[in-house]
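Dear colleagues,

As part of the handover before I leave the project, I'm documenting each prediction I ran so the next person doesn't have to rerun anything. This entry is a single chain, and its sequence is reproduced below.
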Amino acid sequence: MCDYSLHAVATRPAEVGETIVTTTFRGTSTRGFASEADLSVAVCLLPGTELAFADNVRYDNRWIWTRTVNSRVGKFGKIDPHIPDRHHDAIEFPDGKYVLVTQLVEGQRATVLQLPVTQPLGEREHKPQIVADTRSTITRLPIG
C-alpha cells in the first residue's frame, strides 16, 4: 500500500474524490502522495487505484533531467515486488508504461477517481459479486 521506505511516516488510506499531491516526506528521501491539507501524512493507495492528474505527469531521476508523460490518468500498482529493499510503488499509464512514485516531480496534484473493488470475507458466501482484478501488469519505462 505504501512503499517500504515510508515505514517511519504516518499513513492513511486514500479516499475517492480527494486531491492528493506528490511530496518528499520529511526525514526520508522518498517521494509519495499526501493530502493537500497535511503533507506530513502519506496517503496510501491500493493496487488498481485510478488517478487523474491536473496536468501531464512529470518525473525525474533527481539529478539530471525531468521528463513528461503525455497522460493525465494512471493506475497505481506495484513493480518487481519480489525484489526486496527497492521502491515498488508505480503509476501505470494507458500506453502500458510506468513511472515509480518516488520519481514523480514534487507538487503534482491528482484526484483519486476510483479505488479497487474489495469485499469483506464474510460476504463471499452469500452475495456473488464481480471483483475487479487489482493486479497491475506493468512494463518498464525506458530511462535515458
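The radius of gyration is 15 Å. Residues 4 and 84 are 9 Å apart (CA to CA).

All the best with the project,
I.
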